[in-house]
Amino acid sequence: MTESNYSPEHPELTVVMPCLNEVLTVGVCIEKAQKCIEEIGIHAEIIIADNGSTDGSIELAEKLGARVVHQNRKGYGAALKAGIAAAKGKYIIMGDCDDSYNFLGLAPFVEKLREGYFLVMGNRFAGGIQKGAMPPLHRYFGNPFLTLLGKTLFNEPKFGDFYCGLRGFEAKAVRSLKLHSDGMEFALEMVIKFTMRGDWATEVPTTLSPDGRNRAPHLKSFRDGWRSLRFYLVMAPRWLYGIPGLFLFVLGGLLSLKLLFGPLQIGPVTLDFHTMLYSSTFMIIGYQMLLMGVFAKFLAIDTGLHPPSTKLGKLRGRSTLIVFSLTGLLSLVSGIVFALIALNNWSQLGYGDIPAGGGTLRLVICSLTCLLFGAQTICAGFLFGLFNLVTEHDSELERIEQA
């Protein structure tokens, strides 16, 4: 659509502001956004996504010419989802209406969106944070730490402020993300999903001012910090399960292999079969975590939390059940063989006490480890088979709908 095709009925831009009893500031934010829209010379609308205001915010917003969209379901994300769903513009810029965000500075966001970026994040640390606008705990620890964590977990080095609430995005692109969160995690889910999908994104400097409300903000530092950390880990099964699981599996495997043939002397410390019990346990826990990481990834893809992945595509094939079943059966047979050898050694001792320093106890530990691996692998194979059936069922439904 060219610039000449836009009109007040079909605007190029929609500014969405979530609102819950913001009568002291919502009018100021609307007027600032209107002034900036006029200066840019863009066809735009302003939507107030109301979340149950009772203080006159709705009436004031309508009086100033904003369109009010009501959302009865509580939550920051729920309000924004309603506003985004109702937006008519090709582009959307969202921002809190507490007068802390600079609605006079929307031009850089519009410019980047017109260049083709799907997501344009504001960066308050680059643009300037006024005194008293952000608590020291958030400014110097919480936000930098959680932003660094997000950049690490999701390989997104370009963003310096994951939590900036002033951001712009293409309406069609953000709707295709199928965002789930109703709470403050909504903003994180948006950034993470855009990042994982590889959409073209950038950031621009913006400012943050002390908000104009006469009450405490809805944000709760430790509660919402924990919710952010929890959401990061849920959305990153590779880091929650995969990497720790691989570490435990390799560490336990190498140590168990070494201890299978006898004690290991490290300076004054002697590692023996007691340590082998722990090393084999590390292997089992690590293997279980790796499997859980794959299952979590599949579940995240199937529920729309993650975009489809080709890296794990082979595990969704019909052959996975056969391969895992045969591998698990081989591990079970190995466990039985080790058990029979240990039983034979025990019989040579007259079924009496087994010497602590001998190899029989090591064989028993090895046998139990193989049996556990075998059982886990066979069970995992059938679970992969179930995921495969679900995939085939969904594909069949898509074919029927397209026919």
Kindly summarize this structure in a few lines.
This protein has 403 residues and is an alpha/beta fold.
Q: Can you characterise this structure?
A:
The protein has 403 residues and is of the alpha/beta class. It folds into 2 domains: 233 residues, Spore Coat Polysaccharide Biosynthesis Protein SpsA, Chain A, CATH 3.90.550.10; 166 residues. It is built from 13 helices and 9 strands. The strands form 2 sheets. A 7-stranded mixed β-sheet has the order 3-2-1-4-6-5-7, with helices on both faces. A two-stranded antiparallel ribbon has the order 8-9. α1 links the parallel β1 and β2. It is elongated and about 95 Å long. The model has no long low-confidence stretch (mean pLDDT 89).
Task: Chart the SSEs and their pairings.
Layout: E1 13-19, H1 26-40, E2 44-50, H2 57-63, E3 67-70, H3 76-86, E4 91-94, H4 107-114, E5 119-123, H5 124-127, H6 136-153, E6 167-170, H7 171-176, H8 185-197, E7 201-205, H9 221-235, H10 237-260, E8 264-266, E9 269-271, H11 273-302, H12 319-348, H13 360-402
Parallel strand pairs: 1-2, 1-4, 2-3, 5-7
Antiparallel strand pairs: 4-6, 5-6, 8-9
Quick tags:
single chain, 403 residues, alpha/beta, Spore Coat Polysaccharide Biosynthesis Protein SpsA, Chain A, 2 domains, elongated
